[in-house]
C-alpha cells in the first residue's frame, strides 16, 4: 500500500451507489444516494470521502438510542463503555452537546466504588446474550455488567475540551465529569493493582475489549469450566460463527461471570479469586494515556494536588511497562499474573505503548520495524495478530482482523514518535477498507472484506473524527 498521497485514487467499486439499509447486514459497499454532497467547487476526487462521512453520520443517528449510541443493531443493543468514549469523538464533529451527553449517559451508570461498567443495559433487548438477567438474576436483573473496559473516556474528555468550539459548554462538562473520571482511575489503582505494581489487572477477556485475542489462549485455558446453566448464544444469529469466539471460550467467559456474580462483583474480592488475571497491554496502555490526559485536565481545572497524585501513578507505570517489553521479539507483550509469564502471542495491542507514549525511542523503532513487516504480509493493515503466526485467523474477530479504532490509536502513537510515513500508510489502508467495503465492525486483512457487524458505530466515529481529517493530500 502506497503512502497517503494515493488516497485520491479510489477503487472503482467504491463509486457504486447502494441504498442505505440499516438492517442490511450483507451490504458491503454502502454509499447513500441522495446523501451525496454536491456542493459546487468541491473536488470530485473527494466524492467517496463525502459519501463515507454522510454514511457515518447516518450510522450514528440510526444507532442513537436517545443520548447513548449502540455499537450495532441486533448484535450489540446496549451502551458499551469504550465504544461510547470513541463514538463521542465522532459525535463531536456533528454536535458537541451530543458528544458530552454520550459520556454523561455512560457515567450515569458508574458504581459507588468508582467502576464504570463495560455494558449499561438502559433498555431491555432480546437480541443479546448475556443480558441483565445473567449479570444479575431473572428475579433481579442488573442494570449494568460488573466488569469494566479499557478507560478511553478521559482521552475523549481532553479532546472535547481542547478542540471543542463551545468553550463554555466544554468547561462546564469537563468540570462535572472530572471527579467521576478520577474515581474510576482511582478504582483501577486500588481494585486492580492492590499490591501497587504500577500495572493493573484485567479479570475477564471481555474487560480487555479484545475478547478472543490469542494472548488469552493460555490463561483462559487454565480457567476450569464450571457446571453453568445451559445457554444459547445470540451473537451467532447475527454473525457467521467463523467470525466469532468459539464455544469453549464462551463457556469460560460465562464461568467467570457466574463466579464474579457469586460475590456480588465485590471489587475487593474479584482480584484475589478470579482464575483469569492478566496484565493486558491494551488496558494498561489506554489507562496510561488516559492518566496523562486526566493529569492535563487536573492542571487546567486547578486541581494541583490531584495532578501530583496522578504523577505518582504514571511514574510507577512507566517503570513497570519495561517488564512487558520483549527486546528479542521487538514487541511488548501481555502477562499472565497467575503464572508470572509474558504471554507469547504478538498482537496489535503490542503497538499501543506508542499511543501511551511510554515506549523509549529505541523501543519505538523496533515496534515500527515490526509493524512494517506485518503490513508487508497483508493487503490491508493493521492485523490484530501476527500475520506470520501459524494460528493467524484473518476472519475471526480479534485473532487477525483489522479494527479501525486500533489503527487510529497506533497511528496517533506513530506520529508522536515521528513515524509519519508509516502513520500515513496505516491511514491509507484504513480509508481504503472503509471506502471499498463499507463501515463494518472489522475487516479481513488478507482480502479486505468487511466482517462482523455492519453499519458499526465506532468505525463510523473513526471516519468522522480521524479519517475525515487525514484523507486529504496534505497528509
Ligand atoms: O462480543 C461481545 O459480545 C462484546 C462483549 O463485550 O465484545 C465485543 O463488542 C463490544 C461492542 O462493540 C466491544 O466493546 C468489544 O471490544 C468487543 O469487540
TrEMBL record:
Origin, by domain of life?
Eukaryota
Q: What Gene3D superfamilies would the database entry show?
A: 1.50.10.10
| A Pfam family hit | MGH1-like_GH
Q: Which keywords accompany this UniProt record? A: Glycosidase, Hydrolase
Q: Which residues form the Mannosylglycerate hydrolase MGH1-like glycoside hydrolase domain?
A: 76-459
This protein's record includes keyword Protein biosynthesis: no
Report the InterPro entries cross-referenced here: 6-hairpin_glycosidase_sf, 6hp_glycosidase-like_sf, Glycoside_hydrolase_63, MGH1-like_GH
Into which family does the record put it?
A: Belongs to the glycosyl hydrolase 63 family.
Output this protein's name.
Answer: Mannosylglycerate hydrolase MGH1-like glycoside hydrolase domain-containing protein
